[in-house]
Amino acid sequence: MKISLKSDFPVDDAACRARTGKTMSEWFAAIDARGGAGAGRRETINWLYEQMNKDVWWPTTVWVEFERARGIVNKKDGLAEGYNICVTKTIAAPVAEVYRAFTDPAAGQWLGLAAPAAEGTAYSDDGGNSGTWLRLRPGKDVRLKWQTAGVNTATQVDGMFADKGKGKTGITLNHQRIQTREEADGLREAWAAAFERLKARLEA
């Protein structure tokens, strides 16, 4: 899976002011005035969303950059919570078939895996990404430690499969602990394109 490490917008004060009416530094001051990290991540992002006229990109960006500027990190690994992306797709195929296509390259090369999935084993794909299969529950969910090619920090992927009835399956993919906006936007675009390939293959 090829990933382009490019953000949708520049992460700087000029771009932020043009889109939201304030620079990132001004938003940082506003967050501090509301209690900073003590006001809660989700609550603050929701507040920013309303303040920024329901822009879907800048609230999380400003919060993650605020975390970085204030040195707010996870005590276990020393990293910021970072960006979390969610990609969904409904496919007209049974759960078992969709799950197999997700974990076995013999069922289709939509993801570019080099070998079938096995819990606790390493994986790699044709885009140079790599990691470890942490959990495999057939027909239910998968969990991966993910390493984007060209990025030093590992992230986590959770993929969930749900029977939508009438032979359809819903996939929900959460990709978490992404440290830069460039990687987050690149991964969101790459996963969306990969799911389109999966859907086209299984519905052909």
Describe the structure.
The chain is an alpha+beta fold and 204 residues long. The protein has two domains: 13-70, no CATH class; 83-203, Alpha-D-Glucose-1,6-Bisphosphate, Chain A, domain 4 (2-Layer Sandwich), CATH 3.30.530.20. It contains six helices and six strands; from the N terminus they run H-H-H-H-E-H-E-E-E-E-E-H. It has a six-stranded antiparallel β-sheet with strand order 1-6-5-4-3-2. Helix 2 crosses helix 4 and helix 3 (41-51) crosses helix 4.
Question: How large a portion of the residues is in β-strands, by DSSP E?
Answer: 15-25%
Uncertain parts: none
Helix vs. strand class: alpha+beta
N-C termini distance: 21 Å
| Neighbour order of strands in the largest sheet | 1-6-5-4-3-2
- In helices, the fraction of residues equals 25-40%
- Provide the number of structural domains: 2
- CATH-assigned homologous superfamily of the largest domain: START domain
> Could you report the average pLDDT, rounded to the nearest whole number?
95
Write a concise synopsis of the structure shown.
This protein is of the alpha+beta class and 204 residues long.
Task: Walk me through the topology.
Elements: H1 13-20, H2 24-33, H3 41-51, H4 58-70, E1 83-91, H5 95-103, E2 122-124, E3 130-137, E4 141-147, E5 155-165, E6 168-178, H6 181-203
Antiparallel strand pairs: 1-6, 2-3, 3-4, 4-5, 5-6
Helix pairs in contact: 2-4, 3-4
What are the defining features of this structure?
alpha+beta, Alpha-D-Glucose-1,6-Bisphosphate, Chain A, domain 4, 6 strands
